[in-house]
Amino acid sequence: MGNVVVVTSGKGGVGKTTTTAALGAALAQGGQSVVVVDFDVGLRNLDLVMGAERRVVYDLITVIQGVAKLPQALIRDKRIENLWLLPASQTRDKDALTEEGVGRVIAQLRQSYDWIICDSPAGIERGAVLAMRHADAAIIVTNPEVSSVRDSDRIIGMLDSKTLKAERGERVEKQLLITRYDPARAARGDMLSIEDVQEILAIPLLGIVPESEDVLRASNLGTPVTLCAPTSEPGRAYWNAAQRLNGEDVEMIVPSGKKGFFDRLFGRRAA
Amino acid sequence: MNLFNWLKRRRSAPVARERLEILLQYERSLVNQTDLIAVLREEILRIVARYVVIDPDTVQVKVNRGNTVSTLAVGIRVRNAA
Predict the structure, then answer these.
(1) What is the ipTM of this complex?
(2) pLDDT by residue (tens digit) across A107-150?
(3) DSSP structural state of residue B11
(4) Higher-confidence position of B35 and A46
(5) Which among B13, B19, B27 has CB closest to A193?
(6) Whole-angstrom Cα distance, residue A13 to residue A18?
(7) What single DSSP character describes residue A36?
(8) Distance between A154 CA and the closest CA of chain B, angstroms
(9) What CA–CA distance (Å, rounded) separates B75 from B72?
(10) Which residue of B has its CA nearest to A152?
(11) In 3D, which of A134, A103, A129 has the Cα closest to residue A117?
């Protein structure tokens, strides 16, 4: 039985889709079978970040509506063989996402994959609730910035009340992933520190990903950053986060913003 | 002058943290309060319904927060016997 993980944040633009792609790719490269599911109906982007935008034929909604079978909608990654994508619909009405339909698809995915990683839409509406509904665990993506932390707090409250696990009296395991961390601003005292964010939200830390041009370059190329720049700071941060998600004990590295020798030498090549 | 201002300038991160802590404490209490009202509403409804015929949809529970005293107002419409 697969693990269902929701990548969520409340606030938009904090790095949910980048995170879904990067962690999905890292776990799949480790040999496990992974499917990343885009719940952002109408504003789908996971296909683009994964570099599969031209291969989308069917999607989550068409499967729920019975227009297509699940295997027809799943897109296999061209670089990593254990990695699959279930895209969101671009055009269809987002009300077509029904609770019963989502439940059916997730149950089916659980049978065939080790990891089902759900990329939540921003906001706290229906789409975000459906994305977290069946989750066993949640990754809360937060920028060290006031509005993002506030929205994450709201989302944590929802994970504790609106998920199936919560309704059964169980707990969704919640972990904090801090993204767009800027070491220089942190050193000047002009950005909430890791400790600040962690103490305010009071959930365990999964990783710290620095603000980086490598992340931008990875999405430009349609390649998860763990694949495109595995030795870059964000690449390593996501690799370590994936290992922690997998239950491994990995030392937490606070990004320094400095490029390693290897990356200075080869870093520019990819773009 | 500029250097003086620069030295005097308070770092913004501690301000951010303080503001967030105050705000979230308030917002978390609101979430709990909404739950409290729902629970109160159900319980009151159940007890009153034992003795009189009431219209469940007309029950209103309001909490008004004051500085020293808060008030709890419960409004229930009771059907007159025909």
Answers:
(1) 0.80
(2) 999 999 999 999 999 999 999 999 999 999 999 999 999 999 99
(3) P
(4) A46
(5) B13
(6) 10
(7) E
(8) 8
(9) 10
(10) B24
(11) A134
